[in-house]
Amino acid sequence: MPETLTPQESPKYLLSAFSVDYFLLENFKVLAKAHNLGQDPVEVTFDVKTKVSFFDQLKIIQSSIYVTTSLVKEKKTICKLAEAEISFDFTIENYDFFRDGDKYQYPEQFLKHLNNVAISTSRGLLFAKFSCTSLQGVIMPLIFTDPLAPITTIEPTTQS
């Protein structure tokens, strides 16, 4: 299987389902008062981790996004504001594309592409979840998986 794929060679896929598996939002006003933040500059940070799982019999690749949003003051984490786990199921139309004899091989470039779709969609989901809360207007920054770098944050597991 080639390392890079042209659009014509790439597997056909469909984002068939997504779910917010876990979402926790802390009360920002209570936390701000408890930590006596006053007018000191603070920033909201996002820690994003990804995981890819393979369900060969169902012809699905699942990308899970784990996000922790924290309040930071002077480069020190003061408190966690929100946590989320969001799963995306990609149904692969031509799943046999990945078959190599009796096992499956998944091109890193394709997995990174699926992760980018999942991360971008997560941004919108979190923006919607934050609306009408103390985090209204907080937007997760753009994060892309470098298509040329080796995968370091993805932990492939094969499941049936």
Question: Could you characterize what this model shows?
Answer:
It is elongated, with a radius of gyration of 19 Å. The protein has one domain (17-159): Bacterial Protein-export protein SecB (Roll), CATH 3.10.420. The chain has a five-stranded mixed β-sheet with strand order 1-4-3-2-7, with helices on one face. The chain is α+β, with helices and mostly antiparallel strands and 160 residues long. It has helices at 28-34, 108-130; strands at residues 13-25, 43-55, 60-73, 76-92, 99-100, 103-104, 157-159. Residues 148-160 have low confidence and may be disordered.
SSE map:
Blueprint: E1 13-25, H1 28-34, E2 43-55, E3 60-73, E4 76-92, E5 99-100, E6 103-104, H2 108-130, E7 157-159
Parallel strand pairs: 2-7
Antiparallel strand pairs: 1-4, 2-3, 3-4, 5-6
Give the strand line-up of the largest sheet: 1-4-3-2-7
Task: Kindly state the percentage of residues in helix.
Answer: 10-25%
Radius of gyration: 19 Å
The CATH architecture name reads Roll
